[in-house]
Amino acid sequence: MLEALQYEFMRNALAAAVLASVICGIMGTIVVSKKLVSMAGGVAHAAYGGIGMALYLGFSPQLGAIGFALASSLFMAWTTLRMASRADTVISIIWAVGMATGVIFSDLTPGYGADLMSYLFGSILMVAKEDILYMAILSLALCAFVPLFYGHLLAYSYDEDYARTRGVPVDVLHFTVIVLVSFSVVLTIRIVGLILVIALLSIPPYIAEKFCRSLAGMMATSFLLSMFFSVSGLAAAYTFDLTSGAAIIIIAAIGYLAAEVYLKFRKKPKGA
Amino acid sequence: MTGPQDIYFEDVWFSYNGTFVLRQASFSVPTKEFLVIIGPNGGGKTTLLKLMLGLCSPQRGKIILFGEYTPREASHLLGYVPQNTNINLDFPVRVIDVVLMGRLRGLKFLYTKEDRRAAEEALEIMGMDKYANAKMRELSQGQRQRVLIARALVSQPRILLLDEPTASVDVEAQRILYDRLRELNEKITIVLVSHDMTVISSYATAVACINGTVYYHGSKEITSEMLQMAYGSCPVELVAHGIPHRVLAKHDGDRDA
Ligand SMILES: Nc1ncnc2c1ncn2[C@@H]1O[C@H](COP(=O)(O)OP(=O)(O)OP(=O)(O)O)[C@@H](O)[C@H]1O
Ligand SMILES: [Mg+2]
């Protein structure tokens, strides 16, 4: 297994897995505890439209993805602030329209079918140097942003009304979080693909939530879990020649089941 | 510099979506008032507090706090105990972290030692210091309410707004809370939503009945007309709950419901 590390693509894949885990650990925790999972899904699928358009017009797919992701997420943020009760409808519309746009552009762009497929399921083994650079920048930004605004983030996620009364700029924070979610989603698409990105963002924090007493603990635990899932998924993909993104998610799902089973059997009354 | 009136409402109208739930509210609350707000379910009590806190903005009229600020500008001078203790129960948050939120400010990073000490002290006052590291969802409803009261106390407010803070706490916690409120009331203004009529006779300096609009009475005398307007029925059970008859004064009926 270790001999795989002599290949540069394998070392890059490992670096990408670690960085993606930092991003998913931190942003996934916020997404899950703030109940933005379906919005993250909407962003991922809107990004697909941008990738299709970029391939058709011949510019960088990453650029297309981030453009569509930002536009759609800001629109969703705006609608959720104004009419929270209709948010899920708006999100599913954006979800479907993004997908449809991508498919139509791929119809118009013969010969790129395989490229678009790689965005659906991810290709951590083909991750480029600049992707790693972008992920490193985002990870660093998150590691600076979160501790500095921890109290604000906590109040915003836990009790928005109370946060407002303390003068926390909830709307600014909301938009910032949404922009960060967009970047996280677009960069994670490289690793596991857009179909599975929501799983990687939500499964580790969802497991961590059951064991942690604080948001910070949940972030750290999700980071460790998601690193474990992606590295072992990568190993499985390499060994058995599987699609890496799918392997990572299956392992994460097994981890989730294991956590549930563990909690079931642990719940015996203590002491007498 | 503080004006003589901590809270000033001038012809305030508010609706969530179309129909006004608060009409024509005009009143002012002087500094160090102990105002008790009563009224039926859906009467607009919570809405009135949210207007004072700047969480809702009126469609018409104006609200001025401390003689010169809008509610949003002054919100850090207000302490708030929300009515709902069951928000976000799945959320991984410890009791001490919830209380620390009371020390949060718009552009303040990281809590100081002083903040932590104050938070622990507030928990101790409410008898919840043993639970500082418990998760919120591991507490009972009444215990959660005690934590939210501690959070409001720790913010050192100039006006303390409490929305039915004793709805699910026991007699002991009520006594702690009311003693504390009386003590605080020597320096700050208290606005308390309560269905508990005995509170009025022993603590209130003013009473407001809210039922779509605000009937403000600058003394703690509740008249039977007020109760009639507020609750729309004869409050026999209120009298039975031990309000002294002198509190239920005769009223000269200035306004109809
Ligand atoms: N977020 C909201 N959106 C729309 N209508 C609302 C909202 N919150 C309250 N209302 C309506 O406003 C009116 C006043 O509600 P409010 O919560 O202020 O009543 P309350 O006096 O606090 O009642 P309770 O004694 O039950 O706490 C009610 O008719 C309610 O239906
Ligand atoms: Mg209410």
Q: What's the CATH topology label of chain A?
A: ABC transporter involved in vitamin B12 uptake, BtuC
What general outline of chain B do the C-alpha atoms trace?
A: globular
Task: Report the C-alpha radius of gyration of chain B, rounded.
Answer: 18 Å
Percent range of helical residues of chain B: 25-40%
Parts with pLDDT < 50 across at least 5 consecutive residues of chain B:
233-257
The CATH class name of chain A reads Mainly Alpha
Overall strand count of chain B = 9
Spatial strand arrangement across the major sheet of chain B: 5-6-7-3-8-9
CATH C-level name of chain B: Alpha Beta
Mean of all residue-level pLDDT scores of chain B: 83
User: How large is the count of helical segments of chain A?
Assistant: 12
Q: What's the architecture of chain A in CATH terms?
A: Orthogonal Bundle
* N- and C-termini, Cα separation of chain A: 48 Å
- As a whole number of angstroms, the C-alpha radius of gyration of chain A is 19 Å
How many domain units of chain B? 1
Strand content of chain B: 15-25%
Which fold name is given in CATH as the topology of chain B? Rossmann fold
Q: What hetero molecules are in the model?
A: adenosine-5'-triphosphate, magnesium ion
Describe this structure in words.
The complex is a heterodimer of chains A (272) and B (257). Chain A has twelve helices and no strands. By secondary structure, chain A is mostly helical. Chain A has a single domain, classed as ABC transporter involved in vitamin B12 uptake, BtuC (Orthogonal Bundle), CATH 1.10.3470.10. Chain A is globular. Chain B is an alpha/beta fold and 257 residues long. Chain B has one domain: 3-Layer(aba) Sandwich (Rossmann fold), CATH 3.40.50. Chain B is built from nine helices and nine strands. In chain B, a hairpin with a 3-residue loop joins strand 8 and strand 9. In chain B, helix 4 crosses helix 5. Chain B is globular and about 45 Å long. Chains A and B meet through helix 7, helix 8 and helix 11 of A and helix 3 of B. Magnesium ion binds next to helix 1 of chain B.
